[in-house]
Design a protein that fits this description.
The chain is an alpha+beta fold and 478 residues long. 23% of the residues lie in helices and 25% in strands. It is built from 14 helices and 20 strands. Strands 10, 11, 12, 13, 14, 15, 16, 17, 18, 19 and 20 form an 11-stranded mixed beta sheet that branches. Strands 3-2-1-4-9-6-7 form a 7-stranded mixed beta sheet. A hairpin with a 3-residue loop joins strand 10 and strand 11. The protein is globular, with a radius of gyration of 24 Å. This is RNA pseudouridine synthase 6 chloroplastic. It comes from Melia azedarach.
Length: 478
């Protein structure tokens, strides 16, 4: 089957794909007529990208290579030999995301197999995992697109072309560019449809190690409360909805209707999460969260003592990790508040417990004692507890993203441009450079667990109250 593919192969040091997905969606812009013109030459256009940090966003260096269609095989590009997505690999392999435009209408399975030279069972698994997306019209190319890419995009979105496609009648181009998951191998794809295929979805091997039945805290008519294990995703990721707490809890309970996610905690965090059994209760619980009727308490194992009381910071409104916080008010930054209710010194977890829970050694200067803090989360920002405690020189044990930078700041005060010892900068360019340098001092997202547990959740003034089991640092558990 003829095709032209725009493929992007990203490596991100083991981080979640989440931050880059919006960028991935804009990296392809070709149309069916272009595909047919290139059929005889078997041209494949490949974008190989490497990540480069900036102060406010992540930019991508793009290099364009022209290969023959034969170079898409695994033996030439160094890809693994593809069979099935199960059994689950113990390690995530570098992301591979392919961007295609359908030249001739047909079944999703057949088209992807032919376009990417992948076996049918593997592609069927990708679709089952939710790793394949489509849009009726190609997304808009990024500002860095070449004149040729822009020209092609204009061709495919030209009104005279769009008018010929019955599937997009009554839709604006923006509406037609919205992406949806391909949900079935037999789903029909018409010519001109854009496809994004996450060939290497992020994997969660810990899902297969867990005794899920022991993790169910409560089963009510409208919801289920789960003691989420660390190293798992609550509701799945952009490219993997199969290996998630919601999916495995649904199967464990033998439910015919999939459980729905009502709120999130980080993959590396364990503890209480509420899953809705109906769409209606999912909306009800969301409303309770908005009305602040849901109370969440956390246990955090910090590398240093944390003062009792309310701690306030302001978080940079950029949806990219690491999350930056400042004690000083900054316009348009989001207020973050937590209340430290208790802080007690405890022995640092011994090596056997750390190994059992896959806790990473982040270079903490002292490993004799840690500090267990009970925290009332007053605002719910992504990475809030992790970022705020690190800003207090008390990073969470095992937090390979925030602890390295916190240790560096303690060793050389002033590295953090938003810290207590922040320097004065001659101009905005110098400050931006300092922010970029500070971000580069952070590490990768933890692979499994950190010292953080959502230990209690309650709502409706305590009418519904649930508590997680002992955190990993107190006892060994799977």
């Amino acid at each position: 089957m003829s095709t032209v593919s725009f493929s992007s192969i990203f490596t991100n040091s083991g981080r979640s794909l989440g931050p880059s997905v919006s960028l991935l969606r804009t990296l392809a812009s070709v149309n069916a007529s272009c595909l047919r013109k290139n059929y005889n030459s078997n041209v494949v256009v490949c974008f190989c990208s490497s990540k480069k940090r900036t102060s406010a966003c992540e930019s991508w260096k793009r290099h364009v290579f022209i290969h023959t269609a034969a170079t898409t095989t695994s033996s030439v590009n160094g890809y693994p030999e593809y069979h099935r997505l199960l059994p689950c690999p113990s390690q995530n392999i570098p992301p591979r995301v392919e961007h295609l435009v359908v030249a001739e209408g047909g079944r999703a399975l057949e088209y992807i197999c032919g376009a990417l030279d992948l076996p049918p069972l593997f592609v069927a698994d990708l679709i089952h995992f939710g790793a394949v997306y489509y849009a009726l019209v190609c997304p808009k190319p990024p500002p860095t697109a070449t004149p040729e890419q822009i020209r092609i995009f204009r061709e495919v979105t030209d009104p005279s072309v769009l008018r010929k496609r019955a599937s997009i009648k009554g839709k604006t181009v923006r509406e037609a560019q919205k992406t949806f998951r391909v949900t079935h191998v037999d789903q029909f794809l018409e010519a001109g449809t854009y496809l994004r295929v996450h060939v290497h979805p992020k994997r969660f091997p810990r899902c297969y190690e867990i005794d899920w039945k022991s993790r169910i805290l409560a089963v009510a008519e409208s919801y289920v409360v789960l003691d989420k294990p660390a190293g798992t995703s609550v509701g799945g990721t952009t490219d993997n909805i199969e290996e998630s707490c919601a999916t495995f809890a649904t199967r464990t309970l033998g439910l015919t209707t999939p459980l729905r996610t009502t709120h999130q905690i980080d993959n590396c965090t364990e503890g209480c999460v509420v899953l809705a059994r109906t769409k209606e209760y999912c909306s009800v619980f969301h409303e309770k969260i908005r009305e602040k009727k849901v109370k969440k308490l956390y246990l955090a194992l910090a590398a240093a003592p944390v003062p009792i009381g309310i701690i306030s910071h302001y978080m940079r409104p950029v949806n990219i990790a690491p999350r930056l916080v400042s004690e000083d008010f900054i316009k348009e930054w989001h207020l973050c508040q937590l209340e430290v209710m208790e802080c007690k010194r405890v022995p640092w977890p011994d090596s056997a417990i750390e190994k059992d829970s896959s806790i990473e050694d982040c270079g903490s200067p002292s490993r004799d004692y840690a500090y267990e803090c009970k925290i009332n989360l007053l605002t719910g920002r992504t990475h809030q507890i992790r970022a705020q405690l690190a800003a207090c020189d008390a990073p969470i044990v095992g937090d390979s993203m925030y602890m390295p930078a916190a240790i560096a700041e303690m060793s050389s005060p002033g590295l953090n441009p938003f810290g207590k010892c922040q320097k004065q900068y001659a101009n905005e360019e110098d400050k931006e450079a300092a922010i970029t340098e500070w971000i580069s001092g952070h590490g990768k997202e933890p692979s499994v667990a950190i010292g953080l547990q959502a230990c209690q959740i309650s709502w409706d003034n305590g009418e519904h109250f649930y508590e997680a089991g002992s955190p990993w640092w107190r006892s060994k558990k799977v």
